[in-house]
Design brief:
Helices cover 24% and strands 36% of the residues. It has 194 residues and is of the alpha+beta class. The protein has a domain of 127 residues. The strands form four sheets. Strands 1, 2, 3, 10, 12 and 13 form a six-stranded antiparallel beta sheet that branches. Strands 4-5-6-15-11 form a five-stranded antiparallel beta sheet, with no helix packed on it.
Length: 194
């Protein structure tokens, strides 16, 4: 009888542990696929860079800046000094506008609902008018803006809450634990009758 109680307790504990270990869905940018594309002089400029948002530096563009995507921010960390050249419209589509600047598109993430310039940004003259976004992309236009190796452009990105998702593994483990408890109860009744 002691072995049966131990087995039942083990099955129940495994079920509850599995329910506790399932990771809830979370909003944010980490884990999404990011494509970084520079635009200038009326078109795409250079090759696009694709990376997974992980909070680390990626997409060094023309050895000028790195792109870092955290859970809630896009950070452009400049490595050199200069001034972005004048340019006519290079991108004007789907609510996104760039003369000379960078476009980040995101896949596998919740919908982008807002973008603001963080107080840590130190690029002179950059305003909200330089940033456009839609559900899955953020564009920054820094035409005519100067930068140094100490320049940071930090954008705060808000995303929609993810849709509720059922947790099939947790539900299966809970069902298995309930089945084990029921089977144990039936065996106990049978043992008492005999």
């Amino acid at each position: 009888m002691g072995m049966l109680k131990l087995r039942t307790a083990t099955i129940a504990a495994a079920g509850f542990l599995a329910m506790g270990l399932t990771a809830p869905a979370s909003a944010g940018l980490i884990g999404g696929t990011v494509t970084s594309q520079y635009y200038a002089y009326g078109a795409k400029s250079g090759a696009a860079t694709v990376f997974t948002a992980d909070g680390l530096a990626h997409a060094r563009t023309f050895n000028t800046f790195d792109v870092i995507v955290t859970s809630t921010q896009i950070i452009y960390d400049f490595r050199t000094s200069g001034t972005w050249s004048a340019s006519g419209a290079s991108l004007n589509k789907d609510g996104l506008s760039i003369r000379s600047g960078n476009l980040l598109t995101f896949e596998g993430l919740p919908r982008i609902t807002g973008v603001t310039i963080d107080a840590a940004t130190n690029m002179a003259g950059l305003t909200a008018a330089n940033v456009t976004f839609n559900d899955g992309a953020v564009a920054i236009d820094w035409v005519g803006r100067a930068y140094t190796a100490n320049t940071l452009v930090v954008l705060n990105v808000a995303t929609a809450a993810p849709a509720a998702v059922s947790e099939p593994p947790a539900l299966a483990m809970a069902g298995l634990a309930a089945f084990g408890l029921a089977a144990t109860a039936i065996r106990r009744r049978g043992a008492r009758i005999a």
